[in-house]
Amino acid sequence: MTSSVDVLIIGAGPVGLFLANECARRSLRWRIVEQRPRQSEHSKALAVMPRTLEIFDMAGIVAPFLEAANRVTSVAVVTHGHRLAQIPFAPPDTPYPFVAMVPQDVTEALLVQALRSRGGAVEYETSFVSASQDDAGVDVVLDHRGTQSTVRAAFVVGCDGAHSAVRHELGLPFEGAPYDATFMLADIDTNDALRGDELQLCPHEDGPLAIFPMSSRRRRIVATVRKGDGDAPTLEHVRSVLAQRAPQGPRGAVAELEQLFSDPAPAGSAHAGRADLRRR
Ligand SMILES: Cc1cc2nc3c(=O)[nH]c(=O)nc-3n(C[C@H](O)[C@H](O)[C@H](O)COP(=O)(O)OP(=O)(O)OC[C@H]3O[C@@H](n4cnc5c(N)ncnc54)[C@H](O)[C@@H]3O)c2cc1C
To answer: 249: which of 24, 149, 166, 229 is 20 to 30 A away, CA to CA?
Structure first.
């Protein structure tokens, strides 16, 4: 059976979900399909910039993001025991003069919630298979748990991420290049409340390390690691990178990180590596 829509959105990451909200707001006929059974639980992208908040405001969805966000208003550059710079982040021409730290799984949950409040829903376990285009529209074959169907759409929007099947179907090249470096990323909890409004950048000869405050009790640590260090650095490796690169000094990042690592949190509460980014 063939159904017909104005816009067919492939992929329910942040881009597809935002587009679905915009289609709903404009009372278009639309569908959004996602191959996974549910939204991702990974924290991935954190920083929502002021202009994005302004766009969320125009779309009528900014309030829950402001509620969920940890607000960052300054960046400190700290190395070898010295604060080289303390840069306020306060753009004057926006109602949102801060970086809003919102983990991507929260962003996606809020966008799904906004979509539901507009009467829409993501169709999970539904994959884009193929498409053929004529002068008036596009016929798309979808697969839902092994059953295929065809959708006729005026527009098909590939929001299906870095390895986009839609892009491959169109024969479009991937423009750009992967990063040369390998990154270590850890989301770490502490039992102690820490200053939550300052991002710390720690330049180092082996590569930079950055500490993002996700809340007063949670930090994201990102650092480059040598190629060949493996896919998932151990906690020991994280410690050694921190010990080498994070600055010493009472007000520096190491002081905070020592607090994080000496924290008597339950075993397994600190996770390192690209493979384990789940929030709890
Ligand atoms: C650890 C980590 C940290 C990151 N940190 C940052 C950061 O700090 N800042 C930043 O800007 N970005 C960051 N990113 C990248 C960010 O997560 C992506 O840029 C973002 O998810 C892209 O959103 P998207 O909606 O375009 O695609 P995606 O989030 O990739 O969503 C695409 C969706 O399409 C679905 N899909 C794929 N193929 C099909 C198909 N054939 N049929 C149906 N559905 C399909 C996928 O299942 C997926 O849910 C990070 C990523 C990771 C992994």
So the answer is: 229
Best residue among 17, 160, 163 to mutate for probing ligand 1's pocket (most ligand atoms within 8 Å of CB) is: 160
Q: What are 19-74's pLDDT values in tens digits?
A: 999 999 999 999 999 999 999 999 999 999 999 999 999 999 999 999 999 999 99
Mean pLDDT over all residues of the chain? 85
Whether 36 is in the pocket of ligand 1, judged by its Cβ within 6 Å, is yes
Compute, in angstroms, the gap from residue 13 CA to the centroid of ligand 1.
Answer: 6
In the chain, the domains with their CATH numbers are 2-42+108-170 (3.50.50.60), 57-101+178-280 (3.30.9.10)
Band the pLDDT of 264: cuts 50, 70, 90: very low
Report whether residue 50 contacts ligand 1, using a CB cutoff of 6 Å.
Answer: no
User: Are 84 and 78 within 8 A, CB to CB?
Assistant: yes
- Of 221, 125, 166, the C-alpha closest to 15 is 166
- The pLDDT value recorded for residue 177 is 84
CA of 87 to the centre of ligand 1 (A): 30
Query: How far does the centroid of ligand 1 lie from the alpha carbon of residue 161, in Å?
Result: 5
